[in-house]
Specification:
- The protein has helices spanning about 20-30, 35-50, 55-65, 65-70, 75-85, 95-105, 115-125, 155-170, 185-190, 200-210; strands at about 5-10, 110-115, 130-135, 135-140, 145-150, 175-180, 195-200, 215.
- With about 220 residues, it is of the alpha/beta class.
- The chain has one domain: Rossmann fold.
- The strands form 2 sheets. A 6-stranded parallel beta sheet has the order 3-2-1-6-7-8. A two-stranded antiparallel sheet has the order 4-5.
- A hairpin with a 2-residue loop joins strand 4 and strand 5 (about 145-150).
- Helix 1 runs antiparallel to helix 2 (about 35-50) and helix 1 packs across helix 5 (about 75-85).
Length: about 220
């Protein structure tokens, strides 16, 4: 472990944030008149699929990424900068205090999220993470496309990416902690030594209660 007490792994949406980063991005674009109401309603349909555990993440991200791929990149980058300023209000202070506590103890901190790299990477930087695993967006000639590059960081895919990251950094999950809100992250939470359900959805809450995992409600 190179002298570190362990690894603290954090999900992003509804864990470190009071909301979903991609859903908030869609609402932000709607408020800025970049997308219409139909776009927002279609995203809401995808989130119902997510809650039901049947989301097609490739189809969802292809739809979500349309504005980023179609509008001039400088315009999207400026919009993203403005969005990051607004999303700071959605950061959960209690979870940031917990994050900083792990940082003060010398833990390796890892943000792992299904959110796409266009949004997740700058949010991770804003939160002070030097390690982030997120769903990568394919880029061609510097422009973002509507396609994903590699395996999405979603459900069991999070575990696959985590294992690769551990191997790359010569680390193990000894003394590890994991924080998430979603039943989609049960495969990941099953891997860490100290799983924590943060404002969990009903499925994760029931699973956490059955397993005796710690639950944080706010």
């Amino acid at each position: 472990m190179n002298g570190s007490p362990g690894i603290a792994i954090f999900d992003l949406d509804y864990t470190l944030l009071e909301g979903d980063s991609e859903a908030m991005w869609c609402q932000f674009l709607y408020n800025r008149l970049v997308v219409d109401r139909h776009f927002v309603l279609r995203i809401e349909d995808y989130y119902r699929d997510y809650d039901a555990g049947k989301l097609d993440i490739h189809e969802y991200e292809a739809f979500l990424l349309q504005p980023i791929s179609e509008y001039p990149l400088p315009q999207m980058l400026q919009l993203r900068k403005d969005y990051l300023g607004e999303i700071s209000q959605a950061i959960r202070p209690r979870m940031i205090r917990r994050l900083n506590w792990f940082r003060s103890l010398g833990y390796h901190l890892l943000l792992i999220t299904a959110a796409n790299s266009f949004l997740a990477e700058p949010i991770a930087q804003q939160l002070g993470f030097s390690n982030v695993i997120c769903t990568q967006v394919q880029r061609v000639d510097g422009r973002y496309t509507t396609k994903l590059a590699g395996l999405p960081v979603f459900q069991a895919g999070k575990v696959t990416h985590l294992d690769a990251w551990l191997t790359l950094h010569n680390l193990t999950l000894e003394k590890s902690w994991g924080f998430s809100d979603s039943h989609n992250d049960i495969p990941l939470l099953e891997r860490v030594q100290n799983p924590v359900a943060v404002t969990p959805d009903p499925h994760l809450r029931d699973h956490a209660l059955e397993k005796g995992w710690k639950i944080i409600l706010r």
